[in-house]
Design goal:
Blueprint (H helix, E strand, L loop, with lengths): L3 E4 L18 H11 L6 E4 L6 H4 L5 H8 L5 H7 L5 H24 L1 E4 L20 H11 L6 E5 L6 H7 L5 E8 L12 E5 L5 H15 L7 E5 L17 H16 L4 E5 L8 H16 L3
Parallel strand pairs: 1-2, 1-3, 3-8, 4-5, 4-7, 5-6, 7-8
Helix pairs in contact: 1-10, 5-6, 8-9, 9-10
């Protein structure tokens, strides 16, 4: 078995106070668990540097990029994001984006790679929103397409919330197909139009979810064979998630991840996973849910 490339930076954790609505401590705890469980010994660890303004402007308006880098985001936009964009948050957003770019490039080389952050899918072209400062996947997709590293990109987003920012940024780009499976009645209230949207009713459990996924996966590449897949592996479809409305178990989440990784790797398609959402005041339990994705990915490395 090859070693799984894992991308992580200590400053993914911007040091929010315990109890904050955004569970920032999960990034540090996840990396501790990767080490404690021995998964780290079966991985190659990579540390990104901050994404440049030019990279970020591939998917965002340059004025907004400069506001984030200068820590001068207007208060109204900070309220939509859900926290102040100070120096640590600004650095974290740039690192997470660079981490997703690094994961994409490593996936193209190795077949699979995982970022321990990323999946900030509510950030739109002109601003952030919903705990998302920069849309790392949209930036990475546009950058790799621009550089000619890939010709087609698929984004499969299984976070419980619709990937509205990704859909908004990527709409009209025939080289990018966006797929979102989400809880119909959850945030955001105003949904965007992805290439494929699957809106689920409340309380969908493991069996119905996995049946839907088995139906969906072949459709994601129907008439569109990507060079690279970005997989948003948010764990907020879990039944105990504070901001989710679905009812998956730990076993259901891991089965979901194994299906996604297996489907694309069995077809020789590179896949880069990003962490996505997950919300609980119990940081250890939350980090253990995210760990399931890395355990599943290691099976296909």
């Amino acid at each position: 078995m090859a070693r799984l490339p894992i991308i992580h930076a200590p400053d993914y954790d911007a040091g929010f106070a315990p109890g904050h609505r955004f569970p920032m401590g999960k990034y540090t705890r996840l990396m501790q668990l990767i080490s404690e469980t021995g998964l780290g010994a079966a991985a190659t660890l990579h540390v990104p540097g901050p994404a440049s303004a030019d990279w970020l402007a591939m998917a965002h308006e340059r004025g907004y990029v400069d506001q984030v880098i200068d820590c001068a985001v207007p208060a109204a936009i900070e309220r939509e994001i859900g926290f102040q964009v100070d120096a640590r948050v600004s650095l974290r957003a740039r690192l997470a984006t660079a981490g997703t770019i690094m994961a994409a490039r490593l996936a193209l080389e190795e077949g699979i790679a995982c970022n321990t952050a990323g999946g900030s899918h509510h950030a739109r072209r002109a601003q952030g929103a919903g705990f998302c400062t920069f849309n790392d996947v949209a930036v990475a997709a546009h950058l790799l397409l621009s550089d000619g590293e890939v010709g087609r990109v698929l984004v499969i987003d299984l976070d419980v919330h619709q990937g509205d920012g990704t859909a908004e940024i990527c709409t009209g780009n025939r080289a990018i197909r966006t797929v979102s499976v989400h809880a119909e009645k959850n945030y955001p209230v105003r949904k965007q139009v992805s290439s494929i949207d699957v809106a689920l009713p409340d309380a969908v459990g493991d069996d119905a979810y996995l049946e839907t996924l088995d139906w969906l996966l072949p459709q994601t590449i129907d008439g569109f064979v990507p060079d690279l897949v970005f997989y948003n592996a948010g764990v907020d479809p879990h039944r105990e998630d504070r901001l989710g409305r679905l009812s998956l178990t730990d076993a259901g989440l891991k089965a979901r991840d194994r299906r996604v990784f297996g489907f694309f790797r069995e077809r020789g398609i590179a896949i880069a996973s990003v962490l996505g959402g997950g919300y609980s005041h119990d940081i250890d339990a939350l980090a253990r849910r995210h760990l399931l994705t890395f355990e599943a990915a290691a099976e296909f490395a």
